[in-house]
Write a structure and sequence with these properties.
Layout lengths: L1 E5 L7 H9 L6 E6 L6 E8 L3 H11 L3 E2 L2 E2 L1 E4 L28
Antiparallel strand pairs: 1-3, 1-6, 2-3, 4-5
GO molecular function, one term: RNA binding
Keywords: RNA-binding
Protein name: RNA recognition motif. (A.k.a. RRM, RBD, or RNP domain)
Length: 104
């Protein structure tokens, strides 16, 4: 199960957060999202736990809790619409070619 975490203190690192979620079970992967230019945490991230029951327990016990002075939100990650591979029409400029009237 993939878990979304928001409200993370900016100083929290991936090793520390992996240890925290590791208290609930195996952590397959963890990623704190960082600003491309500064490299600083953006205050949210994702954890993947292979055992759903352990992930649900982590969500239940951590959601709304205090983490180093910040109230964090922890929930099951939802897939973004249009992210399933293939060309789902995402991105880029779209032009309405149905309206072909021209004015001169």
């Amino acid at each position: 199960m993939k878990i979304f975490i928001t409200g993370l203190p900016l100083e929290v690192g991936e090793d520390e957060l992996t240890a925290v979620f590791g208290d609930f079970g195996q952590v397959k992967s963890l990623r704190i999202i960082k600003d491309r230019e500064t490299g600083q945490s953006r205050g949210f991230g994702f954890v993947e736990m292979p055992v759903d029951e352990e992930a649900k327990e982590a969500i239940k016990r951590m959601n709304g809790g205090d983490y180093n002075g910040n109230r964090i939100k922890v929930a099951e990650a939802q897939e973004k619409p249009g992210t399933g591979g293939g060309n789902a029409g995402g991105g880029g400029f779209k032009r309405n070619n149905n309206n072909r009237e021209r004015s001169y």
